[in-house]
Amino acid sequence: MSMPTKSLTLLILVLVTLTTPLAVSAQDPPPLYLTSLEPGTVVNNTPHTLSLYGSGFTAECVVRVVGYGLLSTSYVNAGALTALLSSGIPAGTYTLEVGDGTRTAALSNALAVRNPDAPAEPPKAPPPGQPRLTIRTYAVEPAQVKAGEEFAVTIEIYNNGSRAGENTLAVFPGGTFLPLGEKGHLLWQLHINHTVQVTQRFRAPDTLSSGVHQVRVDLSANDWEGSHFDFPHSVPVEVIGKPTGTGFTGSPKVTIENAVTDPPVLVPGEPFSLTLRLTNHGSRTAVNVFTTAASGELVVPASGGDTVYAEAIGIEETVTVTLPLILGPAETGGRRSLAIALAYSDYDGQGYSDQQNIGVDVNPGLIRRPQIVIASYTTAPDFLAPGDTFTLTLRLTNVGTGEAERMTLALGGEGGGGLAPFIPLNAGNVLFVDRLAAGAEMSLSQALIIDGAAEARAVSLPIGLAYEDALGNRTDDTQRLSIIVRKRPELQVSLYREPGPLAVGMAAPVALEVVNTGRSGVNVVGIEAAAPQLESREDGLPFIGTLDPGGSAPLDLVVTPLESGSVDLTVSIAYRDDFNEARVISDTIELDVIGGEEGPDRPGGEGPNIDALGEVEDASPETAWKKLGRAIRGFFGLGS
User: Fold this and answer.
1) Residue 542 and residue 560: Cα distance in Å, rounded?
2) Most confident stretch, 246-255, 484-493, 567-576
3) Secondary structure class of 605 (helix, strand, coil)
4) Helices H, strands E: what count in the chain?
5) Which tens digits make up the pLDDT trace of 162-176?
6) I need a labelling partner for 83 at 20 to 30 A (CA). Which of 129, 154, 548, 554 fits?
7) pLDDT digits over 72-129, tens only?
8) Phi/psi of residue 419, each to 5°?
9) Once rounded to an integer, what is the mean pLDDT over residues 378-384?
10) Is the pTM of this model over 0.90?
């Protein structure tokens, strides 16, 4: 039975009008709305804080009492403001206005101000009315929906009532069509003469017949008093059903025409992209084409899944898809086979699956592996002796081509068995580094203490290194440091006997001794004494040799002070340590010098000559008796 021509024409016009896509235009900034005020009645003998409610508020909004003036305004949020109303405002009914310089909104006769002794007015009844929600326009994409396919419905909801809609809700309950995703859309507040757009996706059942079917839309809202209102609607959708019978023959056949990897040569553990060119050489269109890298052991997804989707591939049509992948562990290189799984269907819902192989080039020799070396290390302080606390700083460098991950450094090797005579302070013997990039370097420090009973020697300290590459391959390595532990000599310098008074310009003997207060001998190679305030020379040969524990070495000096006051005489003892290296240790003796007078026979304050026995030589002219006395002293070994 055919439809009358006039009715058919009318139906076509309706369908064309209703399925025309909505025009999208740039929206103006939202207008200001002022809906309510709290409190509505105040007494003018005290200040009050007014709370104003609405929408579209900004920080630039200012509240004005018409006929009174502007109020100090505070921005709370886009739907609330507060304003301070001072005392003394005349009694009466006022209109409130909110503006930001470009937009304004008013609430007529909203504020009642009365005197303290005036009787309270009865509350006003709220104005009647309610929100009314309608669908002003709608659009269906695509305009003609095929059975078994997805489509989207966009509606424009319009409030043409006399009150704003609170907790506005749009629900697509389904029925003929299957909603996809969330079916309910909460729109919160919809003001009078305002609109809002909502989009919902559906799937048309495979068995749906051709014709116009309805999408049900349930709109609901409350008013500000809490009353609830429902507004059921429906949107027509034109559906093209699948043909019945066996009118279509044949099947689609999708093949991989070309495969390209970037980079061309793949390295284990490195990401790459696989681009496939798919062509349908069958006799029907292939729809819902899924392409998957099926070689799970050879490749893994780089991001997301390992499957890409193509909506449809027509007969002899070609599409290009790209898979982001990572090459897994590969022990053998060369041309490797990579399986690609294809799954698709035709418009009748018949499914097809296929697996095809492509070739990729793999080179395991190019894998980026890390290699960690201890480039340098330092100790602070440099001189280390038993019982000392020091800081060991290691500078690590990754000289490999890959990033090192989850790296551990074990001082003393695995288990710390080679750590003696060093003991960690405030931490264990294992240090951890999360990652170290190729070519990068970093420093690690650890506080240690040396065993007080340690011997002087070069300690070979093993460092156990363990780290992983990007594929999780673990590398274990042991590197060694040489840390020198020395004995610190304990020498004390003191006066062997108290010297006589020391005067400026007067030579005088000073007898010192160096005592070994330590527990081991010291190989002394020289002793010197000096001070900037005096001249000194050794009287006799200084001590050279091994100074045993508890032993002492003399140092006899003849000093000539140059200045009066306290003089610090520095005694430097040179010795060779256990590694035959020359070292110096110093001690200081304090001497007191008194002032001296210059004589006519000693210009410049030069002192008398001192002989080998520390006696003052006579500087007067030599006579025959003096010569005879000097000869006798020389004969008996007393000096000449």
Assistant:
1) 19
2) 567-576
3) helix
4) 2, 44
5) 889 999 999 999 888
6) 129
7) 999 998 888 999 999 889 989 999 999 988 888 888 888 999 988 876 666 666 667 8
8) -80, -25
9) 87
10) no
Distance CA 78, CA 117 (A): 37
Closest of 4, 235, 220 to residue 139, by C-alpha: 235
Spatial contact of 443 and 394, defined as CB atoms under 8 Å apart: yes
The three-class DSSP label of residue 161 is coil
pLDDT 10s digits, 442-476? 999 989 998 887 888 888 889 989 998 877 778 88
Tokens representing 113 are 């101000």
pLDDT at 488: 78
Tokens of 576: 């060779």
Domains (ranges, CATH) in the chain?
Answer: 33-114 (2.60.40.10), 133-240 (2.60.40.10), 254-366 (2.60.40.10), 372-485 (2.60.40.10), 491-605 (2.60.40.10)
Q: Which residues contact 169 (CB under 8 A, 6 or more apart)?
A: 184, 185, 186, 187, 219, 220, 221
How far apart, in whole angstroms, are the C-alpha atoms of residue 546 and residue 522?
Answer: 5
Identify the residue whose tokens are 């309610």.
130
- How many other C-beta atoms can be found within 10 angstroms of the C-beta atom of residue 487? 18
* HEC string for 106-134: EEEEEEEEECCCCCCCCCCCCCCCCCCEE
SS3 415: helix
As beta bridge partners, residue 359 has: 337
Q: How many CB atoms lie within 10 A of CB 113?
A: 19
Sheet containing 104-114: order of strands: 41-43, 104-114, 92-99, 62-65, 69-70
Please tell me what DSSP assigns to residue 618: P
Predicted confidence at residue 23, as pLDDT, reads 40
Tell me which residue of 207, 354, 212, 209 sits closest to 289, measured CA to CA.
354
CA 158 – CA 201 distance, rounded (Å): 21
Q: What is the sign of the dihedral through the CA atoms of 595, 600, 601 and 606? A: positive
The pLDDT of residue 18: 42
SS (H, E, C) 5-69: HHHHHHHHHHHHHHCCCCCCCCCCCCCCEEEEEECCEEECCCCEEEEEEEECCCCCCEEEECCCE
In the numeric block, the tokens 């009008």 are attached to 17
The backbone torsions φ and ψ at residue 630, rounded to the nearest 5 degrees and listed phi first, read -65, -35
27 C-beta neighbours (distance < 10 Å), count: 7
The encoded tokens of residue 437 equal 């990039």
| 594 pLDDT higher than 70 | yes
Q: What is the mean pLDDT of the chain?
A: 82
Residue 335: the pLDDT is 85
Please report the DSSP string for 332-351 in residue order.
S-EEEEEEEEEEEE-TT--E
C-beta separation of 171 from 227 below 8 A: no
Burial (CB < 10 A; 0-12, 13-18, 19+), residue 463, is buried
Q: How confident is the model at residue 185 (pLDDT cuts 50, 70, 90)?
A: very high
Distance CA 558, CA 506 (A): 10
- Give CA–CA dist 101/95, Å, rounded: 18
Q: When comparing pLDDT for 96 and 305, which is higher? A: 96
